[in-house]
Amino acid sequence: MQTKKSIEVGRFLVSPFTKPTHDGGFAASVSIRSGQGMASHDRVMRFTPRFATQRAAIAYATREGVAWVSKLH
C-alpha cells in the first residue's frame, strides 16, 4: 500500500492510499485522523471503484476524504 501526501483540513489529517489490484489497476482508500496520542481517532475508508492509474486513485481518495471532513463542519 502506498500513501501520498497528507493534507490538513481543520483538525483532521487526510491521507490517501493506493494499492495495486490483481488486474493491473489501483484501489483507493483514505485515512482521516484527528486528535493526538491516547485521544487520537483514525477512520479508514476503502472505496469500491477501481482506477486505471495511481494518480486517479489518489485524486478520488483525497476528494472523498476532504468531502467527508467538510460535512462535519
Features:
Nuclear Transport Factor 2, Chain: A, 26% helix, five-stranded antiparallel β-sheet, 73 residues, alpha+beta
Structure description:
The longest helix is centred in the last third of the chain and has 19 residues, at 54-72. The protein contains 1 helix and 5 strands, in the order βββββα. The mean pLDDT is 93. It starts with a strand and ends with a helix. A hairpin with a 5-residue loop joins β3 and β4 (26-34). It is of the alpha+beta class and 73 residues long. The protein has one helix at residues 54-72, and strands at residues 2-3, 7-9, 12-20, 26-34, 41-51. It has a single domain, classed as Nuclear Transport Factor 2, Chain: A (Roll).
What letter string, H or E per element, gives the SSE order?
A: EEEEEH
The major β-sheet equals: 5 strands, antiparallel
Helix tally? Answer: 1
Helical content (DSSP H or I, runs of 4+): 25-40%
Which class of secondary structure composition applies to the elements? alpha+beta
List the helices and strands and how they pair.
Elements: E1 2-3, E2 7-9, E3 12-20, E4 26-34, E5 41-51, H1 54-72
Antiparallel strand pairs: 1-3, 2-3, 3-4, 4-5
Concise synopsis of the structure shown:
The protein has 73 residues and is an alpha+beta fold.
